Amino acid sequence: MLESDNSCLIIEAGVKLKEVKKAINYNMSKICGCILTHEHKDHCGYIREYLQNGIRCYMSGGTAEAINIDSPYVKKITPKCVFTVGAYKVLPFRTKHDCSEPVGYLINHTECGNILFATDTYYLPNTFKNLNHILIECNYAAELLEEDMPKSRKSRLLTSHLSLTTCIDALRANDLSKARNIMLIHLSNAHSNAVQFKKAVEAETGIPVLIAEKGVIMEV
Ligand SMILES: [Zn+2]
Ligand SMILES: [Zn+2]
User: Fold this and answer.
1) For the chain, which residues make up each domain, given as ranges?
2) Residue 150 and residue 122: Cα distance in Å, rounded?
3) How close is the Cα of 147 to the center of ligand 2, in Å?
4) Each residue of 142-166: pLDDT tens digit?
5) d(CA 81, CA 98)
6) Is the pTM of this model over 0.90?
7) Band of residue 186 on the pLDDT scale cut at 50, 70, 90
8) According to a count of CB atoms within 10 Å of the terminal CB, is the N or C end of the chain lower?
């Protein structure tokens, strides 16, 4: 969730609305909308609560179809077409994941600058200029995968999630000259090491790295 002085943009519906409300002191008028990346439960599991509370939820046509939900608050967006949510300008871009039309977002706010939000993607096809804050998946490290991991599970992982190495490559490919911080998100329980990942990304980029808790709030 991104919070600026007078508005808050929920990134994904994977957290109970009750928790979001608590985090913003029950000031529901602050919430300007919720942006969804794809249809997997950990990213949209609570969407019904959000819609029932009149929160506009933005998602690709493929995501809307996969969730199979009908509400006037479902707003379909198109990759590469900028849309506005409250004080935020949002550019969706395609990501690489095993689902229907997944997207990431480049979010701009006059006070906070440019925020990249990319999760559940085995590589990042785009590069961006003038990034100020980065929230990026860093799911696993190849050396932490079990040797006897079933082939099908392994190949699914390699073609759906961002490894530490690919995360670093993606960061290197981007303009980080104005980046203030990098938040690593979506770390696998079994195949990640938060301390090691933070150190590695800080060493490669020279930028302070944070590790996200579930349902993290970022005041920008
Ligand atoms: Zn997913
Ligand atoms: Zn996920």
Assistant:
1) 2-219
2) 19
3) 23
4) 999 999 999 999 999 999 999 999 9
5) 22
6) yes
7) very high
8) C
Residues 6+ away with beta carbon under 8 Å from 15: 1, 46, 214, 215
Ligand 2 centre to CA of 161 (Å) is 8
Residue 216: its pLDDT value, please? 65
**pLDDT digits 0-9 by tens, 206-215:** 999 999 976 6
Residue 39 alpha carbon to ligand 1 centre in Å: 7
| Distance from residue 155's CA to the centre of ligand 2 (Å) | 16
Sheet of 57-60, strand order? 74-77, 57-60, 31-35, 8-11, 2-3, 218-219
The CATH-assigned architecture of domain 2-219 is: 4-Layer Sandwich (3.60)
pLDDT in tens, 109-132: 998 899 999 999 999 999 999 999
